[in-house]
Amino acid sequence: MWASSHQFVLPPQGRRKDENRRKAALGFYGWLSRNSVAWAKAGHVVARRSIVRSPEFQALKHQVVLAGQEPYWKFQPATHKIIEVETRLPPTLEKIFLGTATPEQALKALNDEIKRIRI
Predict the structure, then answer these.
(1) Pairing of strands 74-75, 2-3
(2) Rounded to whole angstroms, how far apart are CA atoms 65 and 106?
(3) In the chain, which residues have pLDDT < 50?
(4) Is the distance from CB of 64 to CB of 71 less than 8 angstroms?
């Protein structure tokens, strides 16, 4: 099962470091994580396992099913060329679904393209 995620990034500060701003940002990230059941209600599986185990999350029919599939989640490789790879998958699937190529033919061609991209 293809999975994706959202991340928050705290970029490095320049020459004028402000520890209060850094602590405020980290505090916000912590608060958001502790209160992520609202994120789950929007259709997401949250990262904090204590939230996933909570009764409020467990009451979310679809998200519970998705969370149960975690052992099968596969994330795309971390590469700056992921968009180049990602944009080639839909046309490949289309060929398979429309019957213009066998799954073996289409996936071999996709694999050859990915190798040329050299992710």
Answers:
(1) parallel
(2) 31
(3) none
(4) no
pLDDT at 119: 67
Query: What is the pLDDT, as a whole number, of residue 36?
Result: 93
Instruction: Report the candidate in 25, 47, 27 with the shortest Cα–Cα distance to residue 37.
Output: 47
The rounded distance, in Å, linking the Cα atoms of 1 and 82 is 17
Q: How far apart are CA 83 and CA 114, in angstroms?
A: 11
* Domain spans of the chain, in order of start: 1-75, 77-119
Residues 6+ apart with CB under 8 A from 75: 2, 3, 4, 5
pLDDT of residue 37: 94
pLDDT given at position 77: 78
The confidence score (pLDDT) of residue 73 equals: 92
DSSP string spanning the chain?
-EE-------PPP-SS--HHHHHHHHHHHHHHHHTTHHHHHTTPPPS-HHHHTSHHHHT-HHHHHHHHTGGG-EEPP--TTHHHHHTTHHHHHHHHHHTSS-HHHHHHHHHHHHHHHT-
